[in-house]
Fold Cyclic nucleotide-binding domain-containing protein.
Amino acid sequence: MDADDLLTIPLFANVNGEVREKAATRLNEVNVVLGTPLARQGDFAYHFFVVRDGLAAVTVDDKHVDTLGPGATFGEIGVLERGKRTANVVAITPMRLLTMTVWDFNDLAESSPEFAAHAKTMAQERLSRD
């Protein structure tokens, strides 16, 4: 993963190059098949995700609330705010994702107040929509 690739992802677009470099070393690429559950409401949040390719459906209490595509992120609410998943996310196409563990995400947030503030703002905006 190249740090410049992260410029297209809103969470990383406005942080400095050093933060993007650090994030790039902590993100892992995974491929998932159609129907793969990516997050289950109420489960502990172990990972943050970035959608590179494909689509995922988001439901809360069995109600469809969003469809996520390339560039979208999810998991930041559970990682930052609550420790538990606030929604179900399921791959509705084959997908390519970037993942970061909760520990790496929190380490990045602790070392970069700029990243932490932006991530918290994104999580709060998502919570206010749901």
